[in-house]
Amino acid sequence: MDPASLDAADPLASYRDRFVGADSDLVYFDGNSLGRPLAATRDTLAGFVGGPWGERLIRGWDEEWFDLPLTVGDDLGRLVLGAAPGQVAVGDSTTVLLYKAMRAAVAARPGRTEIVLDRDNFPTDRYVADGVARECGLTLRWIDVDPAAGVTADQVAEVVGEQTALVTLSHVAYRSAWIADAPAITRIAHAAGALVLWDLSHSGGSVPLELDAWGADLAVGCTYKYLNGGPGAPAYVYVAERHLDTLTQPIQGWMGAADPFLMGPTYTPTDGVRRFLSGTPPVLGMLPLRDMLTLLDEVGIQAVRDKSVGLTSYAIDLADQELAPLGVGVASPRDPGRRGGHVTLTHPAMREVVAALWQQDVIPDYRDPGGLRVGLSPLSTSYAEVECGVHAVRQALDEVS
User: Fold this and answer.
1) Considering the chain, what percentage of its residues have pLDDT values greater than 70?
2) Distance (Å, rounded) from C-alpha 132 to C-alpha 127?
3) Which of 5, 77, 213, 362 could form a disulfide linkage to 83, CB 3.0–4.6 angstroms apart?
């Protein structure tokens, strides 16, 4: 089917108009790294400066801001993560929250000596795990995976055991978009007595999640990709209710204390997921995220997922037709049930292709080895944009090869 017909039949097509720049000629294939801003966020930020900040000043903390990490966290849980209230908090960067969650998990499994992860996990996850392992005298147990796919339940079952303290994996692989079998992997880890930490950075806002139903222990994710929170937007952490009274995070700050304004001589963690907070919450950084959550509440995450499957399937069809004759491969799952919101196309010249495309206002990104990622944010991307971008890739390949 031609892109005009696909766009005409798309029930979410009109939502594209709500994003800044979506009506321009620029082809944006990087929504899986930084989402477009919502037009409504212009008014949100300006109104905040003139209203709650400018008029209410420090009174804003008592009126709303103090609880914002938890109220926005509850909305994230309800709309995106499949988590009941009281288990999600927003604040810090993904890296900091990964450290907090990993450190808390291994401390909850004393005597166990191993952290299980895969060699193709996102670099930050691997680097943080390496630091935690060195800090705590633990060993990293690596899973070798196909970079065009991802970790399987069978691979996890082969390496977990009585020494496993933590299994930490990405739900959607950043390179291939492989969707891990989270329920099965979580069950396998639990059977070995280990905890599981899921990185949701490449799935939150694109793939429906069911953390409570999976039996997940911990999860962390960013909000600047499919959740359109903006550059440097705060991350979120999920801690299952059953662990809230026992897990202790390592960065003790006043906002996670039982009585933050007592300013007492010793630290006592508060109850609930607030104990995973440390410093002053990033109030400004949560405002664009809250706008996007309002939109997701209107649209529904399943509708977003349906559009995502349509876009990525169309991109693969076009790649097969137009790029495969030039030697381009698809390094992402062809089964949409195993594929997240992006598609990786491989060719030895892709680094040069991406550099050339950026000069033409066609914006994918590059990942070794030889991978051009087509990141398709469902609410801000049209089928016509996908076709235009794939045509540009073909032309660039002809020019650089």
Assistant:
1) 100
2) 9
3) 77
Closest by CA position to 116, among listed 86, 155, 68: 155
Structure tokens given for 33: 């790294």
Catalytic site includes residue 373: yes
- Answer positive or negative: Cα dihedral of 240, 243, 248, 252: positive
Catalytic residue (choose from 224, 226, 276, 383): 224
**What are the backbone dihedrals phi and psi of residue 394, each rounded to the nearest 5 degrees, phi first?**
-60, -45
Tell me phi and psi for residue 282, to 5 degrees. Answer: -80, 80
Helix, strand, or coil here: 215?
coil
Cis status, amide bond into 369, omega within 30 of 0: yes
pLDDT one-digit tens code per residue, 300-318? 999 999 999 999 999 999 9
> Measuring CA to CA, how many Å separate 170 from each of 47, 64, 174, 219?
37, 33, 8, 9
Pairwise CA distance, residues 378 & 364, whole Å:
15
Q: Give the integer Cα–Cα distance in Å for 358 and 9.
A: 30
Q: Are 115 and 258 in contact (CB under 8 A)?
A: no
Catalytic (active site) residue 122: yes
State the pTM of this model.
Answer: 0.97
Grade residue 93 by pLDDT with cuts at 50, 70 and 90.
very high
Angle at 349 between CA 146 and CA 35, to 5 degrees: 70
Q: Is residue 29 annotated as part of the catalytic site, yes or no?
A: no
Q: Catalytic: which of 48, 66, 122, 366?
A: 122
- Mind listing the domains of the chain with CATH numbers? 3-37+300-400 (3.90.1150.10), 44-297 (3.40.640.10)
Catalytic residue from among 199, 217, 291, 365: 199
The residue annotated as part of the active site, out of 103, 109, 225, 275, is 225
Q: Express each pLDDT in 221-274 by its tens digit.
A: 999 999 999 999 999 999 999 999 999 999 999 999 999 988 889 999 999 999
334 is catalytic: no
> Is residue 113 scored above 80 in pLDDT?
yes
Catalytic residue among 16, 274, 373, 394: 373
Q: What is the pLDDT of residue 316?
A: 98
Q: Is 199 an annotated catalytic residue?
A: yes
Three-state SS annotation for 42-89: HHHHHHHHHHHHHHHCCHHHHHCHHHHHHHHHHHHHHHHHCCCCCCEE
